Amino acid sequence: MEVKRVKCPQCGVILEVKNSKNEAVKNFSCPGCHASLSVTFHKEEIDDSITRLPDRKVEHASLPMLISNGQAFQLSPGRNIVGRKASTSVADIQIQTDDRLISRHHALIMIDEVPSGGYRARLTNYKNKNLTRVNGVDVVDDDEVILEDGATLLMGATVLTFTSKPFQHV
Question: Are 93 and 110 in contact (CB under 8 A)?
């Protein structure tokens, strides 16, 4: 499935548009200002043999997760966009918070299966201008950080913990 990032010319919001229906042109409205937008996709780039990832709601004990304020957010293989919960957010992991310094699309965590078994997690700042830190170190521009079990993530003023161990609510 081809994905394109577009900027709304009216309100400036950055949107990710997925070509899930194998369309040459996708017409839609901006969730921020409701402007009519259109994106052209290249049909030859779409590979129909790609299988769909498992539904995000399926729990898998060995998959890593993020913990924030006693809530666990299961990460899925592939791409996971993390951000603040909002009606216009398209983040996969939406953190419920009043912290306006965490963006609606704050960071990208890629979960890759490794040949020896298990998973590797890579974090990027997702072209975000707001603060992202991993274990106290700023993540800027195109930095990519490998997340280790127990890593502390700071997105805006919101603290999250990355773990590959099963979550135990206390």
Answer: no
